[in-house]
């Protein structure tokens, strides 16, 4: 992949994230989200080497996959393993949708969705500048105008209130260090009838070749989202390895 060669140089060039309008509200949105956090929400104890030693509702939170694993996100066999085309069909994307990809990584889904929303916008949110740099390279190389890059934080997606019709999270929610604040932040950004598409490797299936800490069961996801103002609309469970859980506001 040609753009991988330019990641580090891009970070120190003129890429100042001026397109990240959400950053202008970081202070206010983060303060609001932090108010939803409580020390009683989490349990701290030793666990998996792949975990951060922090537990939420009985689930150990996993380490974030670093930008060093970017090439794995773009692996040629990903379509076959995850059937990403069917995933996007599940989302029933409309031409004027505003969609946020939270934990967008290298933009694997971002640049598949962008042509489907010619009258809308894709917000590509990530906490790693290296991931944003890679997406910026793709965006400029392809002259794509309806993708907006957003530098998120551990406690906020840094999106405007009532701004998105759909939120996509692919194999990333289980890595949120502060899931309570993050769900609150997404709830604020989501329109009244908006939907969250939570994609996670099925924790119920030991045959899926992914570490247990990087999987999630439907029951666990429902428990966490119910506790934070969402209900499960449906689980479109026909992907090869993953749940496709659709949550809406209660």
UniProtKB/TrEMBL annotation:
Top-level division of the source organism's lineage: Bacteria
A GO MF term: methyltransferase activity
Domain Methyltransferase: 95-219
Biological process terms in GO annotation: methylation
Keyword list, A-Z: Methyltransferase, Signal, Transferase
A Pfam family it matches: Methyltransf_31
Signal peptide: 1-21
Protein name: Class I SAM-dependent methyltransferase
